[in-house]
Amino acid sequence: MNILDLFFPKRCVNCKKVGDYICPDCFSRLSFDTEDICPECSRPAISGITHPKCKKKYSLEGTFTAVVFNKTAKKLLYQFKYRPYLTDLKVTLTDLMHESLIQNEEFERVYSGQGNRLLIVPVPLYKAKQRMRGYNQAEILGREMAGKLGLPMTNALLRMRDTRSQVGLDKTERRENLREAFGLKDGLNEEIRDKSVFLIDDVLTTGATLSEAGKALRRAGAEKVWGIALAKEK
Ligand SMILES: [Zn+2]
Ligand SMILES: [Zn+2]
User: pTM, whole model, 2 decimals?
Assistant: First the structure.
């Protein structure tokens, strides 16, 4: 036992029971049965693979999500976004993400099939927002996942506009709101060219954010991009 645990005992973020950041009862309330969607039309798609008829020049190959964004998952992610649980919770959350993904056959197929071309890129926050919060939760997840999967991570993208919140917008409005919102950072073209990218975000709702960020990578020369989010909102 870590000496700090005596003074600051870990508590379940959902029910506050002492022991761990997620107790066995609350863990059992998480669901890994996420509904896979096509990132272009947001409709159900087998294994999250982009519908062939929806696929455009710079579309994502598909999306992967780890847990359903239910009440328990929301609480976990909320605590992760807003201090003070950040450092310890990142381990719990990436464990969940990693365990769920490696049990996904399509993910395994992609992961083992892309060889050393794979690279992890997190979805960026707008600079002012990141300054306010102090960190980017997608970047923290990305870095931890990179460690677990043995892949390099590059902070290749820039959010060029302070897009308004997506909450309350419908599918079309979400995509419109995000148009041209992402770009590649200067001098990173060589690093991205011909690479296969796992683009990481915390929550997937319609797939609009991952799609737009993915486009910026494809335009910069990435060969294939898959979107990965920890939680899938219904
Ligand atoms: Zn609990
Ligand atoms: Zn589609």
Answer: 0.91
DSSP state of 144: H
190 Cα–ligand 2 center, Å? 31
Identify the residue whose tokens are 């096509």. Answer: 38
Q: Closest ligand to 75 CA?
A: 1
Which CATH number does the domain 34-232 belong to among 3.40.50.2020, 3.40.50.1460, 1.10.1200.10, 2.30.110.10? Answer: 3.40.50.2020
* Cα(225) to centroid(ligand 1), Å: 36
DSSP state for residue 184 in the 8-state scheme: E
**Ligand with smallest separation from the Cα of 21:** 1
Residues 160-215 have pLDDT tens digits of 877 767 777 787 888 888 888 899 999 999 999 999 999 999 999 999 999 999 99
Question: How close is the Cα of 109 to the center of ligand 2, in Å?
Answer: 21
Query: How many other CB atoms are found less than 10 A from the CB of residue 173?
Result: 14
Q: Where are the alpha helices (DSSP H) in the chain?
A: 3-7, 24-27, 71-81, 86-102, 105-113, 127-133, 137-149, 171-178, 189-192, 208-219
Ligand 1 centre from 79 Cα, in Å? 14
